[in-house]
Each structure stands twice: as structure tokens, then as C-alpha cells.
Amino acid sequence: MPELPEVETIVRGLARTVTGRRIAEVRVETPRSVVNDLPGDFTELLRDEAIAEVRRRAKFIVMPLASGRTLTVHLRMTGRLIVERAPAEDPYARVRLRFRDGGWLRFSDMRKFGRMRLTANGQWAAGLGDEPLELSFTPRRLANLLAGRRGPIKSLLLDQRVVAGVGNIYACEALFQAGIHPARRAGSLSRVRVERLHSALIRVLEEAIAKGGTSVEHYVDAEGLEGGFQNNLAVYGREGLSCLRCHAPVKRVTIGQRGTFYCPRCQR
Ligand SMILES: [Zn+2]
Fold this sequence. Notes:
By secondary structure, the protein is an alpha+beta fold. The protein has two domains: 4-125, N-terminal domain of MutM-like DNA repair proteins, CATH 3.20.190; 139-262, Helicase, Ruva Protein, domain 3. Helices cover 24% and strands 21% of the residues. The chain has helices at 4-18, 42-46, 139-146, 153-158, 168-178, 191-210, and strands at residues 23-28, 34-36, 55-57, 60-64, 70-74, 79-84, 93-99, 104-109, 115-119, 251-255, 258-262. The protein binds zinc ion (ZN).
């Protein structure tokens, strides 16, 4: 699933290419891929709208429209948003937007879990946790979020109500960089270790954004290009391979029903 760095990479690509463009035509190929919170027809409401801005909130791609409405996209497992000159052949195309000045935006999604949603206001984002790359997300803030929590730190990092945008890959990588065992009880971490985790999380996310994200499954950016951070993964997907730091074999365990990779020697 695309996580914060992948969604951020897509958002930056879209911001460059679709900001200010007006929609001339909307083709919904798969009705269940679309959600409309407003009275009226999705296709009709979106026609003649202009995309005022493209930004990210958690793993959502958020496109405020000229009318004040908002179009959001959540890619879930296999969703893609591709900007193209002409509509490409694609059996997984769910929605296609044609711009008035030519060019298309294609929402493609093999597994059909992703959603394109037209909504009136920011209600869709209710309950989302802190953005880890915002300045307000300080070590002290993270310590407050973890205080008293009995669950494993790995699961807390994945909880979108606590820290938004972090998924399995970056939770594993940040915990490795911080030397923290993924099953450790979140509320039991010392102040120093919380600070280490805070800086590891930000560093991993920023490095991944700089590399254009991680392509381990289906992820490509808005131009259809793969990211490069998969070559920088220290533990994720490396079960049985030697730890880059100490050469012990990387282990895989299941925590909160998610495959979790860690080094049993480096992470305590
Ligand atoms: Zn190690």
C-alpha cells in the first residue's frame, strides 16, 4: 500500500501537472470506485470544475476544487493516479478525467479498494492523527501520544489516529533505525528512545520522499515511474538476509496481524 512518501511523491507530481486545470469530461468505468457525499451526480458535479490545489493529508490525495468542494483519492492497495496525454489502454481504469486543455488523469486500481470521493468539506479527514513531517510533531508530542499505551510500538505507529501516513514499511524501517524492538510496549519507551524514534521516523520518511518512494508492489508516481527507496530498505522484506549493521539474520514476526521485520540483535 502506498504510504506517506509514496502519496507525497504522487501529490508533488500532480501539483506540478494538474493544478489550475479544468475538467471537461468525467468517465466513471467502475461505479464502486467512486463516492459522492453531495446531492447530484458525480459526473455532472465534477464537469467544468477546476483543480485549485493538490495536497496530502495522511495517505489521502486531496484536491480542493474551484467551487470549494474537494475531491479526495485514497489509493489503498493498488490504486494509481496517472497523468497522460491520451487515455491509455487499461483494464483497471476506474475513473478518467479529461481536461479542457487536453490531457487526462486516470485513476487505475487493480484490486478496487481505492476510492475517489467528492465531498463538501473537511469532514472526511475526521479522526486522522498527527502529520509526522509537520513542525508541531515534536519529540514531546510523540511522547504524549505514546504515554500510557500498552500496545506494541509497531502497532501504534500504524494507527492512523495516532500518527497519520505511516504504514508497514516505514514503521519497520524507523524502528530499526531507532534500535527499538517492534513488540516493545509503546508506553514503556524512555524519553531518550522516544526522541530517537522521532528523529528516525522523520529521517526515514524524508529520505524515502527524496528517492520518490518505495516500489515493492504496485506503486508508481503520477508519471508512471517507480520509486527508488526499495534499494535502501534495511529490514523490510529482508527476512533471513543479514542485518546491514550487525550481520545477524533479519527476522519476520506477526504483530497486530501485520508482517513485521526486525533485527533481533540491533533492536531491543
Ligand atoms: Zn542487526
